[in-house]
Amino acid sequence: MSRPANDATSLHIDTSKPHPARMYDWFLGGKDNYPVDEAMGRQMLALEPGIPVMAKVNRAFMHRATRWLSSQGIRQFLDIGTGIPTEPNLHQVAQQSAPATRVVYCDNDPIVLAHAEALLNGSPEGAIDYVQADARDVDAILEHAGKTLDFSEPVALSMIALLHFVSDEDGAYELMSRLTGVLAPGSHVVISHLTADFHPEKAQKVDEMYKANTLTLAPRNRAQFSAFFDGLEIVEPGIVAAEAWHPELGEPVPGQEDIISAGYVAVGRKP
């Protein structure tokens, strides 16, 4: 079990503007956020009161996808865009099924690094590591992850609620291509992603809020989302709303029947 290479005390946490990971934490009922995050979160709730339920539905999809991947024999996970820890974390779900599972988390938020000790608390049979890096710094991620994961064997690449913060201009598709290119056959890619397809007017207003706070938001339609899986075989049930992906693998989120998801999810397998 490794320890994070960077010292959290040396990293600057910018509390002058909202941060997507901290707002997500606030929507989930966490405490690792600041007044500026809550303020924007409340603006978004005024527009769509169901956002906290949507956030929990997205989190529940990650749990179910991890259980399914474990049932398929996947014993290695690379989780990029980890976010602030909310139990159960990915490694807890995976190691409950297979204690020897190896997990590498990656995020660039100093608050996540400050909680890395919680992320690194796993089973004695397995291995967990954390890398402090931007999702676009593929070389650094792979170099560090390669100390824990064997990329000659299948790996599950998890990108939960991350890619809609990476614009086309910033290389979202190139990022995915480079990452999937190093994966061995039998590896899987798990993505959840915001779309404007279901709530176009509200999505436009949220986009304006993000731009007003100099934040990037790139919701994508179904075809654009599907393009992240080029060269992969999308497993059943295909591209669906988060709550529709193998609901039998987890308990429903209270209130999910009253909302319409704001995103697509899918799992792809590398042939």
TrEMBL record:
<dbReference type="GO" id="GO:0008168">
    <property type="term" value="F:methyltransferase activity"/>
</dbReference>
<dbReference type="Pfam" id="PF04672">
    <property type="entry name" value="Methyltransf_19"/>
</dbReference>
<protein>
    <submittedName>
        <fullName>SAM-dependent methyltransferase</fullName>
    </submittedName>
</protein>
<dbReference type="InterPro" id="IPR006764">
    <property type="entry name" value="SAM_dep_MeTrfase_SAV2177_type"/>
</dbReference>
<keyword id="KW-0808">Transferase</keyword>
<dbReference type="InterPro" id="IPR029063">
    <property type="entry name" value="SAM-dependent_MTases_sf"/>
</dbReference>
<keyword id="KW-0489">Methyltransferase</keyword>
<dbReference type="GO" id="GO:0032259">
    <property type="term" value="P:methylation"/>
</dbReference>
